[in-house]
Amino acid sequence: MILPIYTYGMPVLRKKAEDITPDFPNLKELISDMFETMYHSDGVGLAAPQIGKAIRVVVITLDVLKDDFPEYADFNRAYINPHILEYDDSETAISEEGCLSLPGIHEPVRRPTRIKVSYLDEDFTPHEEWVEGYLARVMQHEFDHLEGKLFIDRISPLRKQMSRSKTSNLLKGKFRCAYKVKSPK
Ligand SMILES: [Zn+2]
Questions:
Q1: Which of 55, 26, 59, 27 is nearest to 148 (CA)?
Q2: Which residues are found with C-beta within 5 Å of the ion, ligand 1?
């Protein structure tokens, strides 16, 4: 089932999300709905707060990048209770980001290129690993959602100022996008 995506100004996007346990009701269905919603809206990642749930569940698909990065072919993964354990601050990179919760806004964001993460997979098997490159960027963007953070919090004050009219239009419901949303107005 395709779920509506909560857009900028919805309070759940600013909540810190909670870890879940394996008995979380209808988890398999929730994850499958999140994948379907992400594919439908052409996103590469979706975090549970974006569908109105303050829980630590994220889905990521990188298959669309397979022409440039063959290692991402068929990359469709769910992350349960993910946490960033360490940032390798020795190298950062700037790349343009967008967000399904902020339709129409794209801004360059500087982030570390390598992070250490812990998470459970869909079978609740624990993993702990260093991740780099595009996946590390998408993970940082998505896992930020679980802390109530958005990528526009990480742009320069000047860029923030410049995007203010766009964010205020999002609050007023004055925007268009090709997928179903829940917006403040
Ligand atoms: Zn996002």
A1: 55
A2: 99
pLDDT at 109 (0 to 100): 97
Q: What is the mean pLDDT of residues 17-25?
A: 97
Q: Are strands 107-120 and 76-97 parallel, antiparallel or unpaired?
A: antiparallel
115-162: per-residue pLDDT in tens? 999 999 999 999 999 999 999 999 999 999 999 999 999 999 999 999
Ligand 1 midpoint to CA 102 (Å): 7
> Quick one: which H or E segment has residue 50?
none
* Residues near 46 by beta carbon (within 8 Å), at least 6 away in sequence: 5, 34, 37, 38, 58, 59, 100, 142
| CATH number, domain with residue 99 | 3.90.45.10
Report the domain count for the chain: 1
Q: Is 97 a catalytic residue?
A: no
CA distance 139 to 128: 14
pTM, entire model? 0.97
Provide the domain limits for residue 21: 5-182
